Amino acid sequence: MAREFTSVGVVGLGTMGAGIVEVFARNGIDVVAVEISAAALERGQATLTRSTDRAVAKGKLDPADRDALLSRVTFAVGLDALHAVDLVIEAVPEHLDLKQRIFAELDRVCKPDAILATNTSSLSVTEISVATSRPNQVIGIHFFNPAPVMKLVEVIRTVVTSADVVADVEALCARLGKVDVTINDRAGFIANALLFGYLNHAVALFESNYASREDIDAAIKLGCGLPMGPLALMDLIGVDTAYEILDTMYRRGGRDRRHAPVPLIKQMVTAGLLGRKSGRGFYTYERPGSPVVVPDEATPVGDQAALAEGARATAKVGVVGSGTMATGIIEVFARAGYEVVSVTRGAEKSATVCEAVKTSLNKGVVRGKLSEEERDGALGRITWSATLDHLADVDLVVEAVIEELSVKKALFASLDEICKPGVVLATTTSSLPVIEMAMATQRPADVVGLHFFNPAPIMQLVEVVRTIRTSPETVATARAVCAALGKTSVVCGDRSGFVVNALLFPYLNDAVKMLEASYSTADDIDHAMKLGCGYPMGPFELLDVVGLDVALAIQRELYLELREPGFAPAPLLEHLVTAGYLGRKTGRGFRDHTHR
Ligand SMILES: NC(=O)c1ccc[n+]([C@@H]2O[C@H](COP(=O)([O-])OP(=O)(O)OC[C@H]3O[C@@H](n4cnc5c(N)ncnc54)[C@H](O)[C@@H]3O)[C@@H](O)[C@H]2O)c1
Description:
It is a single chain. By secondary structure, the protein is α/β, with parallel strands linked by helices. Helices cover 45% and strands 14% of the residues. Helix 5 (125-129) links the parallel strand 5 (115-118) and strand 6. Bound molecules: nicotinamide-adenine-dinucleotide.
């Protein structure tokens, strides 16, 4: 029989604590909510009221249920009010000495059989537990932000946590409607160990002016389908809390440089730019605690049209290549009203690409996405050719041939001879340096990367890659073309992986390393990222879709360019690729797909 929890205590009513109070009270459990001062208590109480009022306004909570929920919560200053509760969850700032002091005090105040839990994200639960005389009743219950919304709870057992306590807490999570994963005490547990290297890296890209905050966030949302970009997420987590978590993970997690907080984070903390809670972090908010972003001096002025100021007129576009990307890109341009010249290496290839474009357009008609006239119009705008000479009068060339530098360089040298002056020459490379292709021509200022995502007709994002020689007019033209295609463009520098792959693949690689270390299972890791961070797919699901060979190739490139030890490909990833387990396409990757 699982233990009955009739009343619980929550210590600290900040970003997490206030949400945790709501979770318990919503599920019929009495809560004693404590803070350090009357002012902090008032703030916490206001957060709870705002959150429940919002739920009522959105029709997610009945007004009567809100009143019942609020009536279950008692507010108090100081820990003495917790003498009768069955369980305490501590959610004070991420400092070991502070948490240890609080646990020593809770041990003194609380009844002997009370369970003492910490919501720490990165500190050692074991070290916190030894500040009490009952380490076997100390456990980690790690909620995710916002606690009322996110389904996941990580339950952290130390080597001394009693099995009964673990079972009782697991049953409690189920009662709260949460999904728990129970794991051992390791820095960052599952989700944060995989999340924070990525967040820190995103801040580093921003700090080095590699891309703007809006572009970094848009790239991740549109390129990976994540619910938030990394900088917006830093603001939600709290820049100070993120700093402490990174710092602890760096010290506890093997001094991985990727966890050493980027200097900008510390500067922001010192300057009081803590994110949503202080009204300003990477973005500026309507007021402290508000989720509404308001424009500030860093907000780009005007719309996409203004961004494209200085752009050259583009009406006719050449697309070189006959693979998946070229086919998609031809369709995208033709549908958007451009005259398209498709160049392949022979009539047979042209016929195949033509068929593929027709099939895709027909699908669009069947699904009601475009009319028969629109389909015929698009097809009528495409000319099929097997010679680059037909590109003499186009305004833009997009190259999507095989990912081999020598082939691409030779192609750019030919385009340089054939194309008229002022033409923008673009490459869709995912991993090669754009500057290499630019320098194969006599006009490097006109060369840019246009990194479409697969499938090009569906994916909203295009990365516009600016080399150190690309002119502002070329970038403006690329952005204007993307806007005319109905795509969102983000501008970034010419580094391996651009924005999306540079941030995504090291995280996937880290997940493989975590599995390899037997810290958790593929299922639990996938669960943690989906339910704790709102990712549309877990890392192993995604790796099987992307292809393990593709992931390995990208990770190798990143490692070779940056020489970052933490980017070294996971040996398990290499072994699976060697064994031919490449994911869905071969029927087996991290999972067996043959019987599904
Ligand atoms: N922010 C997140 O996204 C997130 C997610 C999961 C877990 N966590 C963890 O939750 C914990 C709290 O983080 P947060 O972001 O809510 O911090 P926060 O700064 O928003 O809130 C901390 C609260 O604790 C109160 N406090 C400080 N000292 C106290 C004391 N002696 N007694 C009672 N209250 C005290 C503060 O007044 C403040 O309201 C940390 O361990 C953090 O790592 C945070």
